[in-house]
Amino acid sequence: MSWNPYKRLIALLPGAPLLTGEVVAAHADGVTIQLSDGAQLRVRGEAAVGEHVYVRAGVIEGPAPALTGVDQTV
Predict the structure, then answer these.
(1) 52 CB burial (10 A radius; 0-12, 13-18, 19+)
(2) What is the pLDDT of residues 30-58, one digit of tens each?
(3) CB-CB contact of 57 with 41 (8 Å)
(4) What angle do CA 56, 10, 59 make, to 5 degrees?
């Protein structure tokens, strides 16, 4: 464990979230994905249009299952 207060504070902060989305366009330097809420991100990595992928911090981490969302009222 580091005794540096700044490093200890940074260790408490959460990391980048893992997002899922569908590839909607391919570019020379990456792809554009559409998230489930409709937002679009341009990220680094390779994937074919129509594939579902996991993205963290602007980089594709791998393929994701093509699942649909479900709304439940309690």
Answers:
(1) middle
(2) 999 999 889 999 999 999 999 999 999 99
(3) no
(4) 15
